[in-house]
Amino acid sequence: MDFIPEHIIDYAEAHTTPETEVLKNLNRYTYANLLMPRMLSGHLQGRMLSMFSKMIKPTNVLEIGTFTGYSAICLAAGLSDNGEIHSIEVNEELEHLLMRFVKEANLENKFKLHIGEAHAIIPALNKQFDLVFIDADKENYNAYFDLIIDRVVKGGFIIADNVLWSGKVLTIPDKKDVETKALIEFNNKVMNDERVENVLIPVRDGLMVMRKL
Question: What CATH number is attached to the domain comprising 169?
Fold first, then answer.
């Protein structure tokens, strides 16, 4: 993820609205106690997700990949009064931790956690979504897109994380590198799908922002 100079990132974060106290504590706890803490969205990207949410003012949000709940809390920032966020996490061991911070953020009444495989859970959700955030196993991004595109309202948004994959998408991947290969295929798929318009934003590890036409 370190293709943007650190001093530029530091400057950007210094001129971005600070994390809330809950997000700051969650960020700190994740880095101190979990393996692969960089899976957490973090300050700059988190504020961007919050800003998107506040612009869209969604009623229904779907998140594929919860981790410790940082991005979910950010995505909830712009929820309408009767809005809710459905978040899917495959690792049941994270449930207690992420729900602790969701409750600290006073979002337990708007947050619906689904533990299990997204492939099985998404078809069972009887919802149309205004905003979808994909941040799960990279080799299944194409499948997730296909599962949710018809469940997104016209004018709704899909955001996919890690689409630059530390710059590896610019390389010819090794045959065993299924994640890089999948992300290259996903980026190309989005570019050629007439159901969306899109912009790839080179913040952090790359966000593909798609608007359903």
Answer: 3.40.50.150
Read off the tokens for 63.
Answer: 């998140």
pTM of the model as a whole: 0.95
| Residue 1 within a domain | no
Asked whether the beta carbons of 134 and 147 are under 8 A apart, the reply is no
Here the tokens at position 93 are 């061991």
Q: Is residue 52 part of a domain?
A: yes
Determine the structural domain holding residue 27 and report its residue range.
6-212
* Residue-level pLDDT at 2: 63
CA 160 from centre of chain: 6
> Which H/E stretch holds residue 201?
strand 196-201
Q: What are the E-state strand segments in 27-100?
A: 60-64, 84-89
What's the domain count of the chain?
1
Q: Determine, yes or no, domain membership for 161.
A: yes
Tell me the C-alpha distance between 64 and 164, whole Å. Answer: 18
Distance of CA 133 to the CA centre of its chain: 4
Rg value, the chain, Cα: 16
Residue 53 lies in a domain: yes
**Cα separations in angstroms, 150 against 5, 79, 88, 213:** 39, 21, 18, 11
Take residue 119 and report the two structure tokens written for it.
């492939």
Local confidence band at 125 (pLDDT 50, 70, 90 cut-offs):
very high
Segment 54-95, tens digit of pLDDT = 999 999 999 999 999 999 999 999 999 999 999 999 999 999
